Structure formats: structure tokens, C-alpha cells
Amino acid sequence: MTDRIGLLGVRARGFHGVLPDEKRDGQDFVVDVVLHLDLAPAGASDDLERTVSYAEVGADVVARVEGPSLDLIESLAEQIAGDALARPLVRAVDVTVHKPSAPVGVPFGDVSVNVHRRREVPVVIALGANLGDSARTLQAAVDDLGDAVRGVRRAPFVTTEPVGGPDQPRYTNSVLVATTSLSPGELLERLHAVEARHGRVREVRWGARTLDLDLVQYGDPRDGSDVIRDAPELTLPHPRAHERGFVLQPWSRVDPEAVLRVGGEVRRVAELLAEVATDDIEEL
């Protein structure tokens, strides 16, 4: 991720350290925070809600420095990083805690610790293909995603009739659940790159295709961390996932407790599956 917000040189007085006089008298600490996030939505919309308030981040830092005494600045850095990652838009964070008055015992310029922490966000990706050796293509696509996703679990392949479009062969479909440290936009770019590698072209709406990778859900609706977006390039959650048996059936197989936001309601995928036709779904 290349977009960053830097908040450098936040100074506050705290009582962190191992020695009794450090806990009694206190000293100044200086903190640098670099947030990694996708700034494109904020840049395009000029909307504060689509970025992170550095004023709020600064207040969080001061509260930690002025808070309960810790022995180690490593622990202080960890707490500050955790506060930053609690903000849904932040994908990763670098925190440096400087202790310029540390009792080192020799002349020195600075003492600091730096930690880098990243958020792993749960994602759901639907896969489909109906040209060539579809099952082999889908498995190759999962492999090609590489380090874009982690902890991948793929549902068994199913075949289904096409929905809309011209006459064409049956589809092979699956769903994978995983985690990612990429932003929604970055992950979408990776999905499109894998599609292109397998010869995907977008010429006929709902036409036959060598590979189709759809980002269905980003985040977890159960704790409200799922991203809700309605933009020309990406709508989240996928606007038609709740009515597609070829998504719901494999998804429920790989994650029986899965949920999906439909409108303003969070619903179990298994319940949604019971409401759609599944007569055409056959397992390979």
C-alpha cells in the first residue's frame, strides 16, 4: 500500500519505564505514527468520512502516553498501534516511540522503538468460469492470487446454469473465504489482474468467460467492520450476491456461519440460500 498519513513528533509526558524515578517523576515521550490506507476515495470525494482524522489519532496517542505507567516503550508502541488499527480504514500502521531522556548511562542522541502492524480483513470472493477447463482455471486463479490473500478456504466446485446473457455453457463456480491486508481497491486490482492473466475480456454483458472473480464482501458485518460502498468501480457488498444460489450454496459450505449484509440487515447466508432456487446446482 502506497498511500499514507503521517503524524510525526507528538509529544506528551508519561511515566513509563522500569526505574522507580521514571515512574515517580515522569519524562517526555515523542511518538511518530504513519497510517497506511487507501486515500483514493477521500481524494476523489473530498469527504472527511472517507479518510482518518489525524487530530483524533493524535488525541489517542496522547491518551496512551499520559495513561497508566508501563515498564516498556515496546508495550506503549503496541497499544498505540492497536488504537490505530481499530479504525476501520487503516490497513497497517508504523509506530515509533522516542524516549529522549531515557536513563542510558552514556551520551546518546535518541532511544526509540518502531513497530509495524497490519490488519488482516476477512473477505469473500466468488469464482466462476464456463470456457475451457473451468475447474482447473478456478484453482489456478486461487493459486495466482498469491500473497494478496491468506488463510484461504475454498468451497467445493459446483456447476450451474448461466444467469442472463446469450446461450453459453454451464458455469463452474466456487467461493473462497480468506483474509487480506490490501484495501478493497487494491484487492479488486489484483482480481482483475488474475482475470486478465487467464484471458478474461469484457465484451458481452453476462457473456461466457474464461474467468470471473467477484469481491462479494470485505470485512465482517457481525461487528460492523464490513465496507459499504456504492461506486462505479466497486459496490460492496456485492449487490446481487444475496439472490445468487451459485454464490450462496458454496459459501455456506465453506463457512456455515457466514453472514451477509442485505440492505440494512445482516442475515445468515444459510437463510438466504433457503430463499433462492438451487435446482440447477450440481456438485462436481
UniProtKB/TrEMBL annotation:
Q: What biological function has been recorded for the protein in this entry?
A: Catalyzes the conversion of 7,8-dihydroneopterin to 6-hydroxymethyl-7,8-dihydropterin.
Q: Which GO terms describe its biological process?
A: folic acid biosynthetic process; tetrahydrofolate biosynthetic process
Per its record, how is this protein called by name? Bifunctional folate synthesis protein
- Superkingdom of the organism of origin: Bacteria
PROSITE patterns referenced in this protein's UniProt entry, alphabetically: HPPK
Q: Does the keyword Lyase apply?
A: yes
Q: Which PANTHER family match?
A: 2-AMINO-4-HYDROXY-6-HYDROXYMETHYLDIHYDROPTERIDINE PYROPHOSPHOKINASE
Q: Which GO terms describe its molecular function?
A: 2-amino-4-hydroxy-6-hydroxymethyldihydropteridine diphosphokinase activity; ATP binding; dihydroneopterin aldolase activity; kinase activity
Query: Which keywords label this protein?
Result: ATP-binding, Folate biosynthesis, Kinase, Lyase, Nucleotide-binding, Transferase
What does the sequence similarity comment in the record state about its family?
Answer: Belongs to the DHNA family. In the N-terminal section; belongs to the DHNA family.
Record-annotated 7,8-dihydro-6-hydroxymethylpterin-pyrophosphokinase domain positions: 205-216
